[in-house]
Design brief:
single chain, alpha+beta, 2 domains, 8-stranded mixed beta sheet, 25% helix, Zf-like, Cysteine-rich small domain-containing protein
């Protein structure tokens, strides 16, 4: 999927597409959507606030479902993504890894990277809870995700950040509630 997303990004840098009424899946998200990015350059972003979530596919493997994410299909966001990446050469974009694209998304969304490296793992709970109202709760579990070349290889529940082994840390999601560790506290909030 990275290759398809890069092709979409390179085409977008040459000119934004807009709605694609001729696509047999149109509209896959909402009427009038911008179809410039059929394949999102930030996949898997692991940011629940955009509408995605981890699911088990029909093949039994973990995937990040973007079914409820509309963000990349809104015109102003397409323009922001194209403007952001226009400062990079195509060769750099081809060579970059998932972390580069996730940090880029955070910069576009928040104006800075909010994720932090903790004991060799990348903690994405700060961008997931950022500016959301949350409640402190008793100790809770969250997810440690192992990626290989933009593909989810494993997902496990952990109770403490020190249990992570060079993984990506994200809140656990149950319905519209996410739970994890933020600012040293175990928290939950509704998204």
């Amino acid at each position: 999927m990275k290759e398809e997303a890069l092709l979409d990004l390179f085409r977008a840098m040459e000119g934004i597409l807009g709605p694609n009424y001729e696509c047999r899946y149109y509209p896959c998200h909402f009427s009038g959507q911008d179809c410039t990015f059929c394949f999102c350059p930030f996949y898997p972003c692991f940011l629940y606030r955009l509408g995605g979530e981890i699911i088990v596919s029909s093949k039994g493997n973990y995937v990040w479902s973007c079914k409820n994410c509309w963000w990349i299909h809104e015109k102003q966001n397409v323009e922001a993504v194209v403007n952001y990446f226009s400062g990079y050469s195509r060769q750099i974009l081809i060579e970059e890894d998932w972390y580069f694209f996730n940090r880029s998304l955070q910069n576009i969304l928040f104006g800075e990277e909010l994720g932090v490296i903790v004991n060799g793992s990348y903690d994405l709970m700060p961008p997931n809870f950022y500016e959301l109202e949350y409640l402190e709760v008793d100790k809770t579990e969250f997810l440690a995700v192992k990626l290989d070349d933009f593909e989810i290889k494993s997902v496990r529940k952990i109770k403490d950040i020190e249990e992570a082994e060079n993984e990506i840390l994200i809140p656990e999601k149950e319905g519209r509630i996410i739970r994890g560790k933020y600012k040293g506290l175990f928290v939950e909030c509704r998204i």
